[in-house]
């Protein structure tokens, strides 16, 4: 599955951004079969999990650091996933990546595909 992330930018602390991740090509036909998620990588740090959503959108899963501030959603008719980020903090600054997995058994299923990153910069 080919994934294209977008929506990053520069925002002040306390502000909001919405990231999108669109699937394209043949994979968009079976898009609802994939669990989808967001990861991020800050400068000098390892990539970390942010949020995930099941194929139907009925189940979601968040890192503690973003719980209550970020909301993951998806529109299977548009083969697109979203990450609404509110109350942004400088420590949210990172390159954000979207990813697809073939199972909602999230922690034990390998990544099937990565999107390219989109940079989010939160100024203090």
Structure description:
- With 124 residues, the chain is mainly β.
- 0% of the residues lie in helices and 49% in strands.
- Strands 2, 4, 5, 6, 9, 10 and 11 form a seven-stranded mixed sheet that branches. Strands 1-3-8-7 form a four-stranded antiparallel sheet, with no helix packed on it.
- Strand 7 (70-75) and strand 8 form a beta hairpin.
- It is globular and about 40 Å long.
TL;DR of this structure?
This protein has 124 residues and is mostly beta strands. It is 0% helix and 49% strand.
Descriptive tags:
single chain, 124 residues, mainly beta, 4-stranded antiparallel beta sheet, 0% helix
Task: Show the helix and strand layout.
Elements: E1 2-6, E2 9-12, E3 17-24, E4 35-41, E5 48-53, E6 60-62, E7 70-75, E8 80-85, E9 94-101, E10 113-114, E11 118-123
Parallel strand pairs: 2-11
Antiparallel strand pairs: 1-3, 3-8, 4-5, 4-9, 5-6, 7-8, 9-10, 9-11
């Amino acid at each position: 599955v080919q994934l294209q992330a977008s929506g990053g930018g520069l925002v002040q602390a306390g502000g909001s951004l919405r990231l999108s991740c669109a699937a394209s090509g043949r994979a968009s036909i079976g898009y609802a079969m994939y669990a989808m998620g967001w990861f991020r990588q800050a400068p000098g740090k390892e990539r970390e999990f942010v949020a995930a959503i099941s194929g139907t959108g009925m189940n979601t899963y968040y890192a503690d650091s973003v719980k209550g501030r970020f909301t993951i959603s998806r529109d299977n008719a548009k083969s697109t996933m979203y990450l609404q980020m509110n109350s942004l903090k400088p420590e949210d600054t990172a390159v954000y990546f979207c990813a697809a997995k073939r199972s909602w058994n999230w922690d034990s299923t390998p990544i099937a595909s990565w999107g390219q990153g989109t940079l989010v910069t939160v100024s203090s």
